[in-house]
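S1.2 Input.
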Amino acid sequence: MTPGFPRAARCWLFLALLSPAPSHAQTSSTPAAAPTPHDGQHDFDFEIGAWHSQLRRLLHPLTGSTQWVDCDGTSVVRKVWNGRANLVELEVDCPSGHLEGLSLRLYDPDSHQWSLNYSNSAGGTLSQPTVGEFKNGRGEFYDQETLNGRAILVRFIISAITPNSCHFEQSFSGDGGKTWELNWITTDTRISN
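S1.3 Output.
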């Protein structure tokens, strides 16, 4: 035993003597830069113009119904705020009559997400916005709404985007997103810019 040094201190001293001396060489400790979020304020620019809209909708979603109706008409999309917003006017004729819809899409530069706000002329109010973004040429938007007194999830997808066509699908989920029932399909074909 070494007098004056407790056993634990001797162990630490021994380990310190065996450890390599610290290097005084300069090392780079610059943290990696975080990836820059996608600036999506022009994600909907592809859709500006007039479109022929072929729409199919499920008449009674989340009831087990399989009755679809086909509608035909036009959509006109106008740029607002230099692309950070746009306005969609949909007019289609369905077996049940004429349907007029309006969608106001707003871009949030802080979250880099869009909110899609829909109204039809029969209701005259804006629906709960679906919120989301585009990744790899596909837009996905979600929200929670009430259908027949039940809380449901809503998913809206924009896909198959080309200069002259695009595809829209809306689905509902009554089980928290485990399963989805498709209830709205629209294929748009460009008429003019």
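S1.4 Remarks. Residues 1-25 have pLDDT under 50 and may be disordered.
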